[in-house]
Design a protein that fits this description.
It is flat, with a radius of gyration of 22 Å. The protein has a domain of 35 residues. The chain is built from 3 helices and no strands. Helices cover 46% and strands 0% of the residues.
């Protein structure tokens, strides 16, 4: 009885949350202006992001390794 209730609860939870996984529509052209504002960027301060990237590449001893897998040893 308990297993059946938990299966029903799990199935209803999945059925409730599944529509949230539907594909979203891309932004319309008139919405892109709002998305391009500086406060909408991941790195609002470009200089701070560049310094952070420089520190990261210096510690990894590899150029261009920002944001991808692999280390400074060349074993990607």
């Amino acid at each position: 009885m308990f297993i059946r209730r938990s299966c029903v609860a799990l199935a209803s939870t999945i059925a409730f949350l599944l529509p949230g996984c539907a594909a979203y529509a891309p932004p319309y052209p008139w919405e892109k202006g709002e998305l391009a504002q500086p406060q909408m960027q991941f790195d609002a301060d470009a200089l701070d992001a560049k310094i952070g990237q420089h520190i990261y590449t210096s510690k990894e001893a590899a150029a261009g390794g920002y944001g991808v897998g692999g280390g400074g040893c060349g074993c990607n």
